[in-house]
């Protein structure tokens, strides 16, 4: 049985953007944020912040598929 401290050990300080609107709970990791910092939910302004989150596993870039032969 794993304890809650084991899952907390996997968390890393992560840069995020969170919505400034107190009624909106939206946030997004900095690496996935759009160039314009508008809330994806309410379209309000976003504020840079930090949050302890599990790391995201980056997928290896897939090779482009070769076009199917017409023959």
From TrEMBL:
Region of interest (Disordered), residue spans: 52-71
UniProt name for this protein: Cold-shock protein
Comp. bias intervals (Basic residues): 58-71
Database matches in InterPro entries: YdjO (IPR025916)
Organism: Paenibacillus nanensis
Domain of life, source organism: Bacteria
